[in-house]
Amino acid sequence: MTNKNAKTNPPSSPNDDVDVLIIGAGISGIGAAVHLRSLRPGTTFAMLESRDSIGGTWSLFQYPGVRSDSDMPTFGYGFRPWTRSKTIAEGHLILDYLRQTVDEHGLTDHIRFGHRVLAAEFSSSKGRWTVTARTSGSGQEARFTARFLFLGTGMYDHEAGFTPEFTGVGDFAGTVIHPQHWPRDLDYAGKHVVVIGSGATAITLIPSMAHTAGHVTMLQRSPSYVLSLPAEDAIARTLSKVLNHQRAHRIVRRKNIAFTRGVFKASRRAPKLMRRLLISQARRQLPRHYDVDTHFTPRYNPWDQRLCVVPDGDLFKAISSGRASVVTDRIDRFTKTGILLTSGQELAADIIVTATGLTMSPFGNVRLSVDGRGVEYADTTAYKAMMLSGVPNLAFALGYTNLSWTLKVDLVCEHFCRLLDHMDAHGYHTVAPILDDPAMERVPYMDLSSNYVERGIKAFPRAGTRGPWTAEMAYEKDVERLRQGPVEDSALRFAVAGVPTATSRPGRTR
Questions:
Q1: Can you tell me which family this protein belongs to (predicted)?
Q2: Using CA atoms, how far apart are residues 236 and 259, in angstroms rounded to an integer?
Q3: 109-166 pLDDT per residue, tens
């Protein structure tokens, strides 16, 4: 590739003005840019990225084995088929895919790297956003103006992951690291490694490190459900040989969506059955007489938390080989040589990895205001899970928690382009969703019981329980309302800039 999509900025002035300003150059931001180029070629846009390269999560996380736990035919974009053989792919392959997408669609000249967005203020009289960003090189502030703001920032804080307060950390003579800040030069060959955690990150790290480390122990407070799936999809491989990539891609996507949605729905409708199936699958892949009841039998129902996927059962293989082990217990304190558990057992360690979770961050903590009034995200209600009540000319993309993130991004971007088409056709300058049902109950935007969600979801917009205000993680319902449904809605207020219109203050009405 001739272009690494990094550390280059097009010429810019302090007051660049565009139709759409996209915040973030990860999966969501790149998806928005491609949809604008394809569906609205006359629309001007720019992308502000705080880091010095594209990719978001996939350029940030560098820990061993980092990969997607969603299948790539659905985690990839609908407009660009995933052509590699691996269905569950490593992070560097995903990053290559994103770089190629940026190159193929000529997006690099639209990206301003090293621009961390601090604030954005909307003027109803002008019908435009003014966005303030701090540049990483000089630390100076730059300003941009735009008709629309598109937030493609994801939902995690890229500055810091979550680590609980562990007693005695300072006593430990070895190395303590969080996966979000993995040292590139870390040498763990032959070392004893303890990974604290039982989520997707821990389950990814352990089999990858076990090939080189002396031994890897997964220390968990309680187990998670672990589902083993083939790293390569035999059906997809066959279809790609028989059909062209585009036709095979469409069939495989439908198949994978149906499978994943089927597992989720079955988990909701028959949790006891799905619990037995998932635990029995783990039991079949572990040594005989292995204590599955202690180490792989969660206390919650399937999909109350996100299901952990392992390709070709690599975690179970690492345990079966003796290179890795699982300990289910609570931490009393760190010691000079490892970790003392409440049971009295001490785990010796040279390296301790705190795979204890991520920190959720609503829209990169960008401070929003409308006509001088600050917007508190938690006071707003999500409209069609892509706009905020009372906030004009803004769209966001937050992917699914129970399906591939990018499926939602594609739908949101399609609907966003249709919304712009509708406004242009009718001469509108601004649009804002107005919560027109003050008696409606408001609920958390996500209903997972995962610790990271429970810690952070209160700072996010709320969802409603009726009409366009729901935020169900249901692809088929979003297809109906975002791809097939009309743009016009009684909850939307369209206006011409400078012309007074009946609006309400951003946020909740009760």
A1: Belongs to the FAD-binding monooxygenase family.
A2: 14
A3: 999 999 999 999 999 999 999 999 999 888 899 999 999 999 999 999 888 889 999 9
Start-to-end C-alpha separation, the chain: 54
Partners of 144 in the beta sheet? Answer: 16, 131
DSSP 221: S
Tokens of 71: 């299948």
> Can you name the residues that pair with 226 across neighbouring β-strands?
308
338-341 and 346-348 beta bridge pairing: antiparallel
User: What element of type H or E holds 268?
Assistant: helix 245-269
Token duo for residue 67: 């990969």
DSSP string, 15-41: EEEEEEEEE--SHHHHHHHHHHHHH-T
Domains 15-158+360-495 and 169-228+256-307+314-354 share a fold: yes
Instruction: Decide: helix, strand or coil at residue 309.
Output: strand
Structural tokens at position 308 = 């952990």
Query: pLDDT for 347-377, tens place per residue?
Result: 999 999 999 989 999 999 999 999 999 999 9
Contact (Cβ atoms closer than 8 angstroms) between residue 350 and residue 191: yes
Q: What are phi and psi of 270, to 5 degrees?
A: -135, 65
Percentage above 90 pLDDT, the chain: 85
Paired sense of beta strands 308-311 and 175-177, if any: unpaired
Is it the case that residue 12 has pLDDT exceeding 60?
no
Distances (CA, A) of 374 to 35, 333, 362, 371: 30, 43, 15, 9
Q: Are strands 141-151 and 387-388 parallel, antiparallel or unpaired?
A: unpaired
Q: What is the pLDDT of residues 398-428, one digit of tens each?
A: 999 999 999 999 999 999 999 999 999 999 9
pTM for the structure as a whole: 0.93
The CATH number given to 169-228+256-307+314-354 is 3.50.50.60
- Please choose, from the candidates 111, 142, 95, the residue with its C-alpha nearest in 3D space to the C-alpha of residue 22: 111
3-state secondary structure of 450: coil
Residues with Cβ within 8 Å of residue 441, at least 6 apart in sequence: 464, 465
Q: How far apart are CA 135 and CA 115, in angstroms?
A: 5
Q: Which of 283-292, 462-471, 489-498 has the lowest mean pLDDT?
A: 489-498
Which three-class secondary structure state does DSSP give residue 479? helix
pLDDT digits (tens, 9 = 90+) for 426-448: 999 999 999 988 899 999 999 88
CATH of 15-158+360-495, one of 3.40.50.300, 3.90.226.10, 3.30.420.10, 3.50.50.60: 3.50.50.60
Q: Which residue has the tokens 């345990």?
A: 319
